[in-house]
Amino acid sequence: MTAMFTGMMHMPAPGATVAIVAEFCGGLRLLLGCLTRIAACGIGVHMLVAMVTVHSVVGLFMHWSGAQQGEGCESHLLVLAMAAFLMIRRAGGLSVDRALTGVVLSHKAQARLALS
At a CB cut-off of 8 Å and minimum separation 6, what does 97 contact? Predict the structure, then answer.
């Protein structure tokens, strides 16, 4: 993967390593709900950089017909929205974050927290 980033995309090796680690570890942390806000922020920044540096020249939409090379920014915008949601709302009740903090709230307290 590093060879593809450095060879085809002309990205410096340290940047390629950071991108690979951010995608893999960030996705794994989101899946487990471990340090969710930090993982969502890292993935959001990664998608923003990908949008600006690579996909913005193609436009907003994906090109299903194959007439143009590359993909647009629409899927990256979706990932940015999901990352923003997770940074604002935190991980769910079955997450590692919740288990580590030991916070067990009643249903009424959870409803109040959700509304705030």
Answer: 33, 34, 35, 36, 90, 91
CA distances to 46, 96, 106, 114 from 35, in Å: 17, 8, 23, 19
The whole model's pTM is what?
0.72
CA–CA distance, 8 with 22 (Å, rounded to integer)? 19
Number of domains in the chain: 1
Say how far apart CA 66 and CA 50 lie, in whole Å: 21
DSSP string, 26-86: HHHHHHHTSSHHHHHHHHHHHHHHHIIIIITTT-SS--TTSSSSS--SHHHHHHHHHHHHH
Q: Which domain holds residue 74?
A: 2-115
**pLDDT (mean) for 77-94:** 89
